[in-house]
User: Fold this.
Amino acid sequence: ESWAVQFARESVPPLNSTVLLAMTKEMMLRKNLFFLDKEGVGPCAMGGFGRSTPNSLVINEVFVPRRLRRKGYGGELIQGLLCEAGARGYRKCILFSDFKGEENLYDRLGLERLGRFSERNFP
Assistant:
């Protein structure tokens, strides 16, 4: 099962995997999807850039397989994405997260929480 499908299933609420796979393919075509590949481990984290504004990129699909979590790979990937955004001339990144548990990765990285969001689908 692809990481994008696993990401869709673990999201709260679960995302439509067909729609997410289409977005993932678009990110790949635009060279906006990245994988952290560690020697001795192999690919261990995925994430990339979705939408953008003139000053910011939206970080999407941050995923680490369950067996590889809590080893720092997600944080390393996000740090790399922030550096890549800066190299592309963007001053800010936006990241939406549905994770509300303890020891939130984004809190540990010192990312600033700007508010709550709600996602809506329209027919």
The first strand starts at residue 33 and ends at 38. The chain has a mean pLDDT of 90.
